[in-house]
Amino acid sequence: MKRRKLTKEVRISNIVIRYNRVIEDHISKHNIKIKDIVRCFETDYLLKKIGRKNWLVISKHPDSGRMITIFLEQIRGLEFRLKTARDSNEAEKRLYKKKVK
Questions:
Q1: CA-to-CA distance for 24 and 14, rounded, in angstroms?
Q2: 89: phi > 0 → left, psi -120 to 50 → alpha, else beta; which?
Q3: What is the CA radius of gyration of the chain?
Q4: Which are the contacts of 87, defined by CB distance < 8 A and separation ≥ 6?
Q5: For residues 61 and 23, what is the distance between their CA atoms, to the nearest angstrom?
Q6: What is the pLDDT along the chain (101 residues), one digit of tens a residue?
Q7: Per residue in 67-84, is it b (16+ CB within 10 Å) or e — as a string?
Q8: Concatenated DSSP letters of 43-81
Q9: What pLDDT score was predicted for residue 101?
Q10: Beta bridge partners of 57
Q11: Phi, psi torsion values for 78, nearest 5 degrees
């Protein structure tokens, strides 16, 4: 299956997250918007490498307090492709509470 071109991007400090309309529509099904992802990077977050180029970010949304898990694929350096984002499950919440103090 061919991936669609990443036509949009958001910069958070020196990190670039690229995405497209399909990804944006997908995360909206999980009731998450791009601005929610940006806000999560403004607070403490847990960044964990899962696999060779995939990363997991767990963060507490500063406004709502809701825990969000973000999946990223590293393109190069500090440039990432947004794969998906959703509410954190119980295991991810425990991991966040254990690692982020």
A1: 21
A2: beta
A3: 13
A4: 30, 31, 66, 67, 68, 69
A5: 20
A6: 567 899 999 999 899 999 999 999 999 999 999 999 999 998 899 999 999 999 999 999 988 889 999 999 999 999 999 999 999 999 999 999 998 86
A7: bbbbbbeeeeeeebbbbe
A8: S-EEEEE-SSSEEEEEEE-TTT--EEEEEEEEEETTEEE
A9: 67
A10: 47, 70
A11: -100, 30
In the chain the domains, ranked by start, together with CATH numbers, are 8-99 (3.10.450.530)
CA distance linking residue 56 with residue 87, whole number of Å: 13
Give the tokens for residue 12. 């958070």
Strands 45-49 and 54-60: antiparallel
The pLDDT assigned to 43 comes to 87
Query: Residue 76 and residue 61: Cα distance in Å, rounded?
Result: 26
- Residue of 48, 54, 49, 38 whose CA lies nearest to 99: 48
